[in-house]
Amino acid sequence: MAHSKTTSRNNASVSIVVLAYNEARNLDGVIKSIHQALDGRIPKYEIIIVNDDSRDNTGQVAENLARQNSHLKVIHNVENRGCGFTFMSGVKAAKHEYVWLIPGDDEITTDSIETIANHIGKADMIIPYVLNFAIRPLSRRIVSWGYTALLNVLFWKKLHYYNGPCVIRTDLVKPMTTVNSRGFAFMAPILLRLMKQKHTYTEVGITLQNRRYGKASVNNLLNILSAIKMIAWLVWTMHLASVFKNTANQATAKH
Fold first, then answer.
1. What average pLDDT score do residues 126-138 get?
2. Is the pLDDT of residue 2 over 50?
3. E strand or H helix at 190, and its extent?
4. Among 89, 71, 114, 121, CA closest to 20
5. Which H helix or E strand runs over 231?
6. Which tens digits make up the pLDDT trace of 33-88?
7. Alpha-carbon dihedral of residues 28, 92, 175, 33, nearest 10 degrees?
8. Positive or negative torsion for Cα 147, 102, 33, 44
9. Residues 233, 151: contact at Cβ < 8 Å?
10. CA–CA gap between residue 21 and residue 34 (Å, rounded)
11. Domain total for the chain?
12. Would you say 87 and 179 are in contact if contact means Cβ atoms under 8 Å apart?
């Protein structure tokens, strides 16, 4: 498409933003998986751990990892701000051509990180979706299915998944304002707006593994309410606002 400015994988450079909230026991595994998957595959990459004011010692663990690796840096939110703000904090610090979200829960397998990496450069956005979704609890599968189906209906899309570890050209994400979603819904506004601008994308199937430590909180009430609020905002900004503006302009013109 006209807006595409992709590169070959052999020349790709990637900033990996690792979201970390109370992931002290999972972070080491995540970082090891990233290195194992990318060394020799992606010539230039950096890892940015963003600690979202964790209540455990995530920040200390992250700093210890950074002292062992000059290509790893840490950002600490001064208060808990949620996924959207945390991701965009990492984006602002990103120095490379692509920015890649990887959660700090160590659920993405090394093989899946390799699979995604193999597609970098093929499109402006790499949008992964989960192949072994049965690994998730039933309640989470229901919420995720309903969320994806609703977005596809409202915005005339056929994406498999909106919440995966996406890779996006950094210059496309940096100008965006902070995505106001504390929970899992922060990626959808980015993807939908870039697709509306005709940027290219490819979907990639990946597999997950169970968390070794801790418990996910994506289905709590605050996160679900945040997702509903985000969807309403998207419908207004991407659909209704222009309709109301055109109607108002036509009414003004008649007078």
1. 93
2. no
3. helix 187-196
4. 89
5. helix 221-235
6. 999 999 989 999 999 999 999 999 999 999 999 999 988 999 999 999 888 899 99
7. -20
8. positive
9. no
10. 18
11. 1
12. yes
Classify residue 178: in a domain, yes or no. yes
DSSP state letters, 59-123: HHHHHHHHHH-TTEEEEE-SS---HHHHHHHHHHH--SSEEEEEETT--B-HHHHHHHHTTTTSS
Residue 48: count of CB within 10 angstroms of its CB: 24
Residues spanned by the domain of 229: 9-254
Evaluate if residue 220 carries a pLDDT over 90: no
| pLDDT average, residue stretch 6-25 | 86
> Which pLDDT value is given to residue 247?
53
Residue 174 lies in a domain: yes
Cα radius of gyration rounded to whole Å, the chain? 19
Reported as a pLDDT band with limits 50, 70 and 90, residue 143 is: confident
Provide the 8-state DSSP code for 8.
Answer: -
Give the angle 101-104-106 at the CA atoms, nearest 5°. Answer: 105
**Is the residue at 2 inside a domain?**
no
In a domain, 3, yes or no: no
How many other CB atoms are there within 10 angstroms of residue 91's CB atom? 22
* CATH number for position 226: 3.90.550.10
Q: pTM higher than 0.85, yes or no? A: yes
